[in-house]
Amino acid sequence: MSTVALIDYGSGNLRSAEKALARAASEHGTAHKIVVTADPKIVAKAERIVLPGVGAFADCMRGLKTLPGMVDALTEAVMGHLVPFLGICVGMQLMASVGREFGDHPGLDWIAGDVIRMTPGDPTLKIPHMGWNELSITRSHPLFAGLERGAHAYFVHSYVIRPRDNADILATTDYGAPFAAAVGRGNIVGTQFHPEKSQAVGLAILGNFLNWKP
Predict the structure, then answer these.
(1) What's the mean per-residue pLDDT of the chain?
(2) Which residues are catalytic?
(3) Are 210 and 32 within 8 A, CB to CB?
(4) Is the per-residue pLDDT at 120 higher than 90?
């Protein structure tokens, strides 16, 4: 049975993500075993890796680094062995070169760019951005296979990733201004929204990730 390593580094809604991934595996017939883990040895052997994230960029990056060997195991698996990887919310933002929340903090640097505070053009829009918003697919990708036009996903965040190369943006959402709702390159993808909280749309995306062969 293929393993999906859901990384536990103290910064994610693990229970919801675990349940959603397990349901997606069942509904899509992938037979994946979802393993919540803080063990880099399990991550190194996983067939797929998911990195959730809730909170401040620096805190999440610090939490990842406090797990001995985890960043090295992640980098070797994802960038060296090209293991399919999904980052969720701050887990996606950590793929950037730098996060600019309460100062500048180095990220994993898998997607060149930075993470900046949202600045909607409409001053009446509240930050953090919370709620359901429409996804606008900007580049065809297996992650969004079968999604209907106008699909909505659930967001909770105050910061957004700003890739240096717009070709890394897979989908956008508008909240006073367009921002990257999903990014990807090669074997890595990330969503600013929470697929584990996005009901049928989220389960479809997670199922597509489990079936994805980059």
Answers:
(1) 96
(2) 89, 194, 196
(3) yes
(4) no
Two tokens, residue 18: 């675990």
Residue spans per domain, the chain: 3-211
List Cα–Cα distances, 16 to 13, 52, 57, 185, 192, in angstroms: 6, 10, 21, 26, 16
Q: What is the pLDDT of residues 83-106, one digit of tens each?
A: 999 999 999 999 999 999 999 999
For 28, the 3-state DSSP assignment is coil
pTM, two decimals, is 0.96
The residues with which 137 forms a beta bridge, in sequence order, are: 171
H, E, C per residue of 125-157: CCCCEEEEEECEECCCCHHHCCCCCCCEEEEEE
Tens of pLDDT, residues 33-49: 999 999 999 999 999 99
CATH number, span 3-211? 3.40.50.880
